[in-house]
Design brief:
The protein is of the alpha+beta class. It folds into three domains: about 10-90; about 105-115 and about 190-255, no CATH class; about 120-180, no CATH class. The chain is about 15% helix and about 35% strand. The protein is built from five helices and eleven strands. The strands form three sheets. The protein has a five-stranded antiparallel sheet. Strands 6-9-11-10 form a four-stranded antiparallel sheet, with no helix packed on it. A hairpin with a 3-residue loop joins strand 10 and strand 11 (about 245-255). The two termini are about 55 Å apart. The relative contact order is 0.13.
């Protein structure tokens, strides 16, 4: 680009046309940043068309024989008639890509949070509900009529539901479970990992956007922290004129119900 004579010394800032290159990932998604005279940048921007391929591949990406598609073009004006042109590129083919150790534009978050589960799913009590006898005893105790509240308070159940003249006491884990229900404890907290991927890109979600939110999906990182994963959030937010923030979230669990969340 031509040399500018402006108030102040801009030479250091305008000496490199490709003054910034950010790689989103190893698939060679790049953001080119040009700085210079605003009028010349507008002319240069005319050489980029979103959705079309471009030969303006920065040499320092060391890409041989690959084709790039333009994913976004943005011009912003600065002081003294200067400006900045930002061009998003995405590799169509990746036959030989060497990525420089530059800023990736992707942030990762890992946190541990608490979720509530029914008391029936606690490891101590879950076996009770796969056993017919213990399940029947708990169900019977929960449904004792008010006129027999005296026996219910003692955690007893009738030997004969149709003729409740004799009663027996609950024992073991069935007794513990009913005692907790009587105290108002119907759930417990469990710690689960949550993974978030926050990506800044010039490409938005598009008109045919879709998501696996609410479905099984392993996160790209930290998938070893849980046995089963559910994608629990997927959002796009536009920042400024053409930047997009894409936030994806996965929550890990010991297990997921196969009928409700089938493995794909």
């Amino acid at each position: 680009m031509s040399t500018l004579i402006k108030k102040g010394n801009l030479a250091a800032r305008l000496s490199m046309e490709e003054s910034g290159v950010k790689l989103a990932d190893a698939s060679a998604t790049a953001t080119l940043v040009y700085r210079g005279d605003l009028a010349e940048l507008k002319t240069k921007a005319g050489g980029f068309t979103v959705g079309q391929t471009s030969s303006a591949v920065p040499a320092n990406l060391n890409i041989s024989g690959d084709t790039f598609k333009v994913t976004g073009v943005e011009i912003t004006g600065g002081a003294g008639g200067t400006g900045r042109l930002t061009v998003g590129l995405s590799a169509v083919s990746n036959s030989s890509v060497t990525v420089l150790p530059t800023e990736k534009g992707v942030d990762w978050q890992l946190e541990w949070t608490l979720v509530e589960r029914p008391l029936e799913q606690h490891p101590t009590f879950a076996p009770l509900f796969t056993n017919t006898d213990s399940f029947a005893d708990i169900y019977t105790w929960k449904n004792i009529q008010d006129k027999h509240a005296y026996y219910k308070a003692q955690f007893k159940i009738p030997n004969d539901i149709e003729n409740p003249t004799s009663w027996r006491s609950l024992t073991g884990d069935a007794l513990k479970f009913c005692q907790k229900l009587a105290k108002g404890i119907a759930a417990y907290q469990v710690q689960v990992p949550v993974v978030r991927k926050i990506e800044t890109t010039v490409s938005g979600p598009g008109s045919n956007a879709s998501s696996r939110c609410g479905m099984r999906q392993d996160p790209p990182k930290f998938d070893n922290l849980a046995n089963a994963w559910l994608k629990t959030a997927d959002s796009w937010t536009k920042n400024g004129q053409s930047k997009w923030s894409h936030i994806q979230e996965w929550s890990g669990f010991d297990s997921l119900d196969e009928d409700l969340y089938p493995s794909s």
